[in-house]
Design a protein that fits this description.
Glutaredoxin, two-stranded antiparallel sheet, PRX5-like, redox-active center, Glutathione-dependent peroxiredoxin, EC 1.11.1.27, Thioredoxin_domain
Length: 168
């Protein structure tokens, strides 16, 4: 499992864009994790799936709500990762009104989850292999803090916990 001090994996995620700009075309666009994280402080959180109850009711809304505070504390970007495709993540971003605040990044094949060792096997529930619920502060591509939830829990990966870690 990825640890504090480790570099983020060298994988490519996908991000759905509804408008063209900043060199991004409409539709899914590649996000090379190591390149994009370079020189930035990122509040990254991951969860089992888009449109799932805890993720939609608590996890994403908390980061949208704390956006201004996280920015003031020195966070350059907020990333939400899930093992879903870019189209689902784009639709979820619209539903959560996260545009301009939280980058909804698709880990469609679970490459990031596998590379970090933070997978969650939900095949018995018909959902395949997903990501565990966790959050981390990333500074210049390296993990500065890591908060992994216990099974079925939502206690340490919330925006408030990460904000306190960013503030130090």
């Amino acid at each position: 499992m990825i640890q504090v001090g480790d570099q983020l994996p060298d994988v490519t995620l996908q991000e759905y864009s509804e408008v063209e700009g900043n060199g991004c075309s409409i539709g899914p666009n590649p996000v090379k994790v190591r390149d994009v994280a370079k020189g930035k402080t990122i509040a990254l959180f991951a969860l089992p799936g888009a449109f799932t109850p805890t993720c939609s009711a608590k996890h994403v809304p908390g980061y949208v709500e704390k956006f201004d505070e996280l920015k003031k504390a020195g966070v350059d970007e907020i990333w939400c990762l899930s093992v879903n495709d870019a189209f689902v993540m784009g639709a979820w971003a619209r539903d959560q009104k996260s545009g301009g605040k939280v980058r909804m990044l698709a880990d469609g094949s679970g490459d990031f989850a596998k590379a970090t060792g933070l997978t969650l096997d939900l095949t018995a529930r018909g959902m395949g292999v997903r990501s565990q619920r966790y959050s981390m502060v990333v500074k210049d591509g390296k993990v500065a803090s890591l908060n992994v939830e216990g099974p079925g829990k939502f206690e340490v990966s919330d925006a408030g916990t990460l904000l306190s870690q960013v503030r130090g």
